[in-house]
Amino acid sequence: MATYEQIQNWVREKYGFTVKTCWIADVKEKCGLPPRRAPNRNKNGTRLHPCPKNKIASIKDAFRHFSMI
After folding, report:
1. The whole model's pTM is what?
2. Strand blocks (E) in the chain
3. For residue 39, is pLDDT > 80?
4. Which terminus of the chain is less hemmed in, N or C, by CB atoms within 10 Å?
5. Among 27, 33, 29, 30, which residue's Cα sits nearest to residue 8?
C-alpha cells in the first residue's frame, strides 16, 4: 500500500495541487480502506477537514495508480 507522502507526490505531479493527509484518510474510509489513525483526530471520530468533492476523483485516481482499489 502506498504511503500518504507517495500519494501526495503523485497527485501533485499529475494534477498540480497538494492534497492534505486528512483528505486522503477521508477518501480511504469512503473506499473501505483502513486509514492511518492520526494522533490529533477528534475524540468523537469526526473529521475537521473532510475531502472537498472536487478533489475526491484525483485521490481515487492515485489509489488506482498504486493498486489500492
Report:
1. 0.86
2. none
3. no
4. N
5. 27
